[in-house]
């Protein structure tokens, strides 16, 4: 598991250990945190290796005998791409290439599960957006780097005998997340309880999924993939609806018990986006995953509300 000390990766680590799988986490701790692995570290079958995938000394030997690689290591900050695009090239594309090379030359690890993103679709003309939508025209270097990773993974699968499951994720929220709209809003409201600054015009509307629903969906997709003969397969994974940034602000203020909070919209860039590269309208079709029997317990607003409660509990 690469990036296993991060938000999503650590939840998958816990779930894999609960299933009695042996798990080796590889993380350079640039975004991940060891406290995310507190539960896992005392479990039988767990191992942690601090390693930078850009310089993966001995990684091929480590992959000998491994059945499945969960590749979740990445720089997740979309906004950084407008000021320092090389970060996404190095941390996402180059790191993925190095991992694939190690998998190619190892004696195992022939299945890879990759955490991709809805941003690969860019400004999709079709909403909800299905997995076979095209052309793929990302509007951020983050989305471009993830689409590049998908392409590399597909090429290695067809050229070097790997199998690949690609999960295109909506906005995932929940316990252990220190990135994104909820931590941002909670921090701002604790500093200025009577006013909430919201980047953009507040009309940005996207799909969100709680991490618990993500984990169940990821395993269901993997089980279906392993039963198939597909070399590469792709699933969108998110709640089947949307919620606006303005509504998220209202939910967070409600959970904080605040009243009469003034929402201050910055106006944003390029038609009300929060930042350069921000996809203003994102709504994923999850019919393919639902056809396997997956049903998220929470819709987008429900995921936001529960994740806010979890963030407040952990910040006490």
Short descriptors:
316 residues; alpha/beta; Rossmann fold; UDP-galactose 4-epimerase, domain 1; 2 domains; four-stranded parallel beta sheet; two-stranded parallel sheet; 12 strands; globular
Which class best fits the helix and strand makeup? alpha/beta
Helix fraction bin: 25-40%
- Label the CATH architecture of the largest domain: 3-Layer(aba) Sandwich
Strand fraction band?
Answer: 15-25%
**Outline type:** globular
Written as H for each helix and E for each strand, in order along the chain, the element string is HEHEHEHEHEEHEEEHEEHEHH
Question: Mean pLDDT across all residues, rounded?
Answer: 95
**Number of DSSP E strands:** 12
Please describe what this structure looks like.
The chain is of the alpha/beta class and 316 residues long. The protein has two domains: 7-172 and 209-237, 3-Layer(aba) Sandwich (Rossmann fold); 176-206 and 241-281 and 299-314, UDP-galactose 4-epimerase, domain 1. The chain has helices at 7-18, 38-41, 59-62, 86-105, 141-160, 181-191, 211-227, 245-255, 287-290, 300-314, and strands at residues 23-27, 46-50, 68-71, 111-117, 163-169, 171-173, 195-198, 205-206, 208-210, 232-237, 243-244, 262-265. Strands 3-4-5-10 form a four-stranded parallel β-sheet, with helices on both faces. A two-stranded parallel sheet has the order 1-2. The protein is globular, with a radius of gyration of 19 Å. The model has no long low-confidence stretch (mean pLDDT 95).
Quick structural overview:
The chain is α/β, with parallel strands linked by helices. It contains ten helices and twelve strands.
């Amino acid at each position: 598991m690469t990036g296993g000390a991060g938000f999503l990766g650590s939840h998958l680590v816990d779930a894999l250990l609960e299933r009695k799988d042996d798990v080796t986490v590889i993380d350079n701790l640039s975004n991940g945190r060891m406290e995310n692995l507190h539960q896992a570290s005392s479990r039988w079958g767990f191992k942690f290796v601090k390693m930078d995938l850009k310089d993966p000394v001995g990684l091929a030997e480590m992959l000998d005998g491994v059945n499945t690689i969960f590749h979740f290591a990445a720089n997740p900050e979309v906004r950084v791409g407008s000021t320092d695009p090389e970060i996404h090239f190095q941390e996402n594309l180059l790191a993925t290439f190095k991992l694939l090379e190690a998998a190619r030359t190892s004696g195992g690890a022939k299945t890879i599960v990759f955490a991709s993103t809805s941003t690969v679709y860019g400004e999709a003309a079709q909403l909800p957006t299905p997995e076979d939508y095209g052309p793929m025209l990302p509007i951020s270097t983050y989305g471009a780097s993830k689409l590049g990773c998908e392409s590399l993974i597909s090429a290695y699968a067809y050229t070097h005998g790997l199998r690949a499951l690609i999960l295109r994720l909506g906005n995932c929220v929940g316990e252990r997340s220190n990135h994104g709209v909820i931590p941002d809003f909670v921090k701002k409201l604790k500093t200025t309880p009577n006013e909430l600054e919201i980047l953009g015009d507040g009309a940005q509307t996207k799909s969100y999924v709680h991490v618990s629903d993500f984990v169940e969906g990821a395993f269901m997709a993997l089980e279906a993939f392993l039963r198939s003969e597909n070399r590469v397969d792709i699933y969108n994974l998110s709640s089947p609806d949307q919620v606006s940034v303005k509504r998220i602000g209202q939910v967070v203020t409600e959970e904080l018990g605040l009243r009469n909070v003034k929402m201050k919209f910055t106006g944003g860039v390029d038609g009300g986006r929060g930042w350069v590269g921000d996809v203003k309208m994102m709504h994923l079709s999850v019919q393919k995953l639902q056809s396997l029997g997956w049903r998220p317990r929470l819709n987008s607003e429900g995921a936001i509300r529960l994740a806010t409660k979890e963030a407040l509990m952990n910040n006490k």
